[in-house]
Design brief:
336 residues; alpha/beta; 5-stranded mixed β-sheet; 10 strands; globular; binds 5'-O-[(R)-(carboxyoxy)(hydroxy)phosphoryl]adenosine; binds zinc ion
């Protein structure tokens, strides 16, 4: 079969991204225009500003993705775009752009689920990775344990009942005055702290459930800090960051290992922004090793939002014959 080149477009949150991927596995370019510097003034993503920034950036980002891959629109076989879940105004910029390109260039259009994209980042990072495997997808918007049966078939085994893991990292970082996005800041500060300084709660839902809940640990950390402040006591931010991270990663790891055991699988993959957390990677690898389970994850640039992952997921949809048409719309909340 001839090589298949997919142009991926991603604009679901605060990154405007475009990439060219060959055969679902090789990234020829990966252009990401991050809006972090703009949103950090407000302590989080402002949806209206995100949409406007996407509009300003998207054409240049796509041009750059073609240029860096040394290809033109003529070389592209299909256009893959994130259509949900995400911020609807932000998603619409990518979806409208992809539709306009598909229509004028007469190229097939493929709609991609953002979470499937995160999972498929691993196909680019690990060229011999094949399903089935268990994937923990932990990002600013989602915390899912997914059973990837096949390239196109997924089953959710557990998900968060309240906050996403990354959201909890961002909130605690804000309380500690570390800035936005909080995950990388907590990750770095935690290296200087004692993860057992404070035993924050690890929430387990019903015995058989693999669902997560992070609002309890978040409230526990905030209450802990407030109590110390009321007493006028000094507290060690690094210890709190490390103890919070320990509580969150303990639950993420134990549920993911449990999922792999239930499906009798010896392969765990992690994805999403939180997958770049060093404590999570370490703990997942060490714990999985005890059970003879391998752990794979992408490099940080493919963990946070990017379009390589969208083009990779789009490739499997494209070769299976899936196509979207000009009625494609952005969908803010979209089941897997
Ligand atoms: O996947 P992503 O870019 O966007 C969503 O789809 O949500 O994930 C962003 C999230 C943010 O909450 C950020 O704080 C978190 O991923 N994150 C991390 C780390 N790097 C990014 N969380 C913990 N440790 C990190 N090193
Ligand atoms: Zn994401």
């Amino acid at each position: 079969m001839d090589d298949v080149l997919i142009l991926g477009i991603e604009s679901s949150c605060d990154e405007t991204a475009a990439a060219i991927v060959k055969n679902g596995r090789t990234a020829l370019s990966n252009v990401i225009n991050s809006q972090i510097d703009i949103h950090k003034r407000y302590g989080g993503v402002v949806p209206e500003i995100a949409s406007r920034c996407h509009i300003e950036a998207i054409n240049t980002v796509i041009d750059e993705a073609l240029k860096n891959a040394n290809v033109t629109f003529d070389d592209i076989d299909a256009i893959a775009v994130t259509y949900g879940p995400g911020l609807v105004g932000a998603l619409l910029v990518g979806v409208s752009t992809a539709k306009a390109l598909a229509y004028t260039l007469k190229k097939p259009l493929v709609n991609v689920h953002h979470i499937k994209g995160h999972i498929c980042a691993n196909y680019v990072a690990h060229s011999d990775l094949k399903p089935p495997f268990i994937c923990l997808v932990a990002s600013g918007g989602h915390s899912h344990i997914v059973y990837a049966k096949d390239y196109l078939e997924y089953e959710i085994m557990g998900m968060t009942r309240d906050d996403a893991a990354g959201e909890a990292f961002d909130k605690i970082a804000r309380v500690l005055g570390l800035g936005y996005p909080g995950g990388p800041k907590i990750d770095a500060l935690a290296k200087e702290g004692n993860p057992h300084a404070v035993e924050f709660p690890r929430v387990k839902m019903a015995e058989e459930s693999l669902d997560f809940s992070f609002s309890g640990v978040k409230t526990a950390v905030i209450n802990h800090i407030h109590k110390l402040e009321q007493k006028g006591e000094e507290y060690n931010k690094a210890d709190i960051a490390a103890s919070f991270q320990e509580a969150v990663t303990d639950v993420l790891v134990s549920h993911t290992i449990e999922a792999a055991q239930r499906k009798n699988l010896d392969k765990i993959v992690i994805a999403g922004g939180v997958a770049s957390n060093s404590a999570l990677r370490d703990k997942m690898e060490k714990t999985a090793k005890k059970y003879g389970i391998d752990v794979l994850y992408p490099p940080p640039v493919l963990c946070t939002d990017n379009a390589v992952m969208i083009a990779a997921a789009g490739y499997y949809e494209y070769v299976s014959g899936k196509r979207a048409d000009m009625r494609l719309n952005a969908v803010a909340s979209l089941p897997l």
